[in-house]
Amino acid sequence: MGHYHHLPYPDHEDIVLLIGNPNVGKSVIFSYLTGKYVTVSNYPGTTIEIASGKLLGQKKVLVLDTPGINNLIPTSEDEVVTRNILFENPHAKVLQVGNSCNLERTLLLSLQLKEMGIPFVLCLNMTDESREYGIKIDLQFLSETLGVPVIQTVATQRIGLNKLIPALEETGKNHFPGIQYPKAISQGAKSVSSMFRDDYPFKTSISMMILASDLSVKEWVNKTVPEDKIPILNESVRKAQSHFQMPVRDVITTTRMIQARNIAKRVLTKEETTTTSFLSNLGKWSHHRFGGIVIGVIILFLMYLFVGRFGAGILVDFIEHTVFGNWLIPFISRVLNEVIPFQFVHDLLVGQYGLLSMALSYSVGIVLPIVGTFFIAFGILEDSGYLPRLAVMMNQLFKIMGLNGKAILPMVLGLGCDTMATMTTRILDNRKERVIVTFLLALGVPCSAQLGVILGMLSALSPAMTLLWVGVVLVVLFSVGYLSSKIIPGKTSDFILELPPIRIPKLSNIIVKTFARIEWYFREAVPLFFLGTLVLFVFDKIKLLAIIERAVSPVIVGFLGLPLKATEAFLVGFLRRDYGAAGLYELFTPHLAEGTIGMDIQIQVVVSMIAITLFMPCIANFFMIIKEQGIKTAIAMILFILPFSMGISGMTNHLLRWMLL
């Protein structure tokens, strides 16, 4: 078989491939099969990451968790990679994971695997949810129809997972009568497949991809099919297309969907249930034209109370002021004075730019409570199934920016971490959409730590000032997105997204996700807080900080109308925007603690929040942009964002002062 690439597999005798639609629990099953010790590496020639690990108890068996796929005639880079892995490993054992609540979509992929002649086990996951919805599946009839073992599982509870590996040993190349395509397509596929030798694997499937004008197989076709046969192949494609008004790709997919639907009807029964009626209605309301807006506003308000009031208010006040300010830092300062009576050491650890008094205080005292509460809230939204409904709600609005509703998912994830969200732009179907969303993430989507600090500061201001910050950021995002869609070539892809059922979040899932994200925060973010503080400490000692402050004072003080000390926050903002936001929080804390805040301070706070929100991406995100889009694109984004953020903030400052003072 001709390969596109060779994956960097370790030594192994067998391979198990996890194949399935997005969001069906493949990663949970992968973790069960391999344990925690896995390797994540890019598929050669792409930015798509593939998780691999040894099967527990069997060192010679490699398990690969492939990207989610809806169709083997791919529409995204993720689907191309999964399809290529199947082609490159014709003798692998395949475990298809599907959602019991959406049997038709699962069977669409099953039929294509059968058409390839691949022996596999069908794992129907999320059985607990399908039972709640009154869905019953005749497993024996489905197994006989497809000719493969069918196992029902609840991956999050490890129910049925122990049956998967034994079932893989039972797979064999079962008879498959094939999908009944229209005559023109069957004849076209026969003509194309005749150009390959008889023992060539996947001939039928590859022929269908060629008839569907799948550009991702063009390189392989040019290497495999003799040059003198290419015109014959192209004529076969043209002749097949001449029989249909719609693209052959759509005819092939529709034919497969009809057969999948027919099988589903024969094996599936659904009973009326009353226990989930409220959740079902809530799921419908959450993406309704009007109900969705009401539910969205309620969710935002609850997040504001939990993250902005409780996390950034009560928790930060206790940890930063009581734990660090009254207990920890004074105690350490006294110990240092007695044990190591050197001023340099004292300044390094607990001075104005001390590693403990500033870096630890910022990262643990200010940002951690906000990050923790945001991660809990975000985990609830994830586990409930609300985020895909948000994508449906935003689809029409995002079309203005040359995007579709799917783009809201990485942007919402950006509220957790822009770096990770930049990586998830791979779910978008073309480069234009990925570049626009990456740009918007770098420009104006605050990560959880930064957003929490901002909410904490804005909560002390008037509602009008809070709305002003929201309005400026949204107008900037949509304006820049709209202009980018006009400048960057390409078309908007079709919007296809499955809506999972609204479910009651599981406490165990939220706890696991929250602790995993907090672990990431300590591993990835906190060291940069210490690095930023150390840079400020060195700059202060060599008097460079004062020089920089004087050099940028015309911008910070004259144009933005902020105190000169705000320069420090923007300097460390180059390392992490949330660290910069924490610096501004500390700067304005004495004013925010007062009962009433003057208009001049309110203007300074809102201008500083606009500036730090639209500020440059942090170092980690910058390197991720380079990895995903290339260094030229990353530098172009930086060269636009820095002066643009200062310009918008400065104009807001002067406009507010002209109107209000």
For the record, give the distance between the C-alpha atoms at the N and C termini, rounded to a whole number: 74 Å
How are the strands ordered across the major sheet? 2-3-4-1-5-6-8
The computed structural class is alpha/beta
Compute the CA-based radius of gyration.
Answer: 28 Å
Strand content: 5-15%
Oligomer: single chain
Number of distinct beta strands: 9
Summed up:
With 661 residues, the chain is an alpha/beta fold. It folds into two domains: 1-275, P-loop containing nucleotide triphosphate hydrolases (Rossmann fold), CATH 3.40.50.300; 293-495 and 504-660, no CATH class.
Folded structure, characterized:
- The protein is α/β, with parallel strands linked by helices and 661 residues long.
- It folds into two domains: 1-275, P-loop containing nucleotide triphosphate hydrolases (Rossmann fold), CATH 3.40.50; 293-495 and 504-660, no CATH class.
- The chain contains 28 helices and nine strands.
- The chain has helices at residues 26-34, 77-88, 103-115, 127-132, 139-146, 164-168, 183-193, 203-211, 218-224, 230-241, 248-267, 277-285, 291-339, 343-350, 355-384, 386-399, 408-414, 418-424, 431-444, 448-458, 463-487, 507-541, 544-559, 566-573, 577-592, 599-613, 619-629, 631-660, and strands spanning 14-20, 39-42, 49-55, 58-65, 93-99, 120-125, 135-137, 150-152, 268-270.
- The strands form two sheets. Strands 2-3-4-1-5-6-8 form a seven-stranded mixed beta sheet, sandwiched between helices. Strands 7-9 form a two-stranded antiparallel sheet.
- Strand 2 (39-42) and strand 3 (49-55) form a beta hairpin.
- Helix 7 runs antiparallel to helix 10.
- The model is unreliable at 1-8 (pLDDT under 50).
